[in-house]
Amino acid sequence: MEEIMVRAATNPGDMCNSLALRKAARYLGATYDKALAPVGLRGTQFSILQSLAARGETTISSLAESIAMDRTTMASNLKPLAREGLVTVEPSATDRRARIVTITAEGRSRLKAALPLWQDVQHRFEESFGADEAARLRTALEAVLETGFTPWAE
Fold this sequence. Notes:
- This protein is mostly helical.
- The chain has helices spanning 2-10, 17-36, 43-55, 60-66, 71-83, 105-129, 131-144; strands at 58-59, 87-91, 99-103.
- Helix 2 crosses helix 6 (105-129), helix 4 crosses helix 5 and helix 6 (105-129) packs across helix 7.
């Protein structure tokens, strides 16, 4: 324990879970962004389209929750997708406070074009990192979401 305290006092970043996660996320995120660039998508946009294709229409809040993002950030991420005609964002017919997001035919087409690029970078990562290690990493990261924190609670 004393060694941990000495290391933390010397360089707190060495012990920071958030920094380690952010560094890895930036590194891997940039790798996926670069791979998806030929079809004009970023990794986050691909994830949003993928989620919408699987779920069908949904509220902004529900979509944000499904990919662990706050509602405001999700709304900002949807704007360029809506401008490009890849999604629609409209008021709910049953709750005027809610906004419903739907993937369009053009969004499905772009997602279909992006899928082989995503599969390639996914395969290259698993080949380099190890498929079993990648599966354990995804499991561990999913468990982080169950730690009980409420980062977006209002």
